[in-house]
Every structure is written in C-alpha cells, then in structure tokens.
Amino acid sequence: MSRRSPRPAARGFTLIEVLVALSILSIGVLAAFKLVRESTLALGGVRERVMADIVADNTLIETLAQPQPPVVTMTRGEVDMAGARWTWRRTVTPTSDPDLLRIDIEVGRGDASGALARVTGFRGTH
Fold first, then answer.
1. Could you write out the DSSP letters of every residue in 58-96?
2. What pTM, to 2 d.p., does this model score?
C-alpha cells in the first residue's frame, strides 16, 4: 500500500513578497515622476531662452532698420513681451573697416544677472 502525499495547497504570495514588489514598483514610479519634473523644468528654461532670442533679434532688426547708423556707444532698454519684462543691452563698436560697425545685443530678464541670448550684426556707416 502506498501512501500518497496530499496535494500541496495552492499558495498565494506571502506578505514579504507583496511588500518587496510594491517597493520596487514605488521606486520605479518615483523615478518616472522625477524625470517628468526635470523635463518640465528644462522646458521652461528653453522657452525663456527662445523668447530672449526673439527679443535680441527684434532689437537688432530695429537697429539695422534705422535710417541713420547707430552711434558708437552702449545703450540699454527694456521691452515687454510674452507677459515678461526683458532687458537688452546694445553695444556698437567700430571694426577694422572704417565703413562698418559691429552691433552686439545681449538680452536677459530684469531680475537675472546673466544674458539669456546674444546676437551680433554689422552695419555700414553710410
């Protein structure tokens, strides 16, 4: 007569296994949230630099479109665009060619110390 061992009972997950699985899942979710947060912050910085580039380009175009060439000097100004105040600095310097001026534009936010955009153009003196 042979004895059979009883069928093993159907087993579920133990509490430890469930806790380990939840811990691994929560670490993955937290990493995904951090990635989304960092991407959102980076996108805000890109938007700000693009707007500063537009302000710099507009300021240079306004300078080049004037009937008279600009004076060799440094000037500052402010402009409101896209719901923000932007400060620009225009530096006009002579070049090695006496008939050509160099125009450098730097744009930043009024509350920030560094320039977010820089653009350079050239214009004849006549």
1. HHHHHHHHSSSPPPSSEEEEEEEETTEEEEEEEEEEE-S
2. 0.67
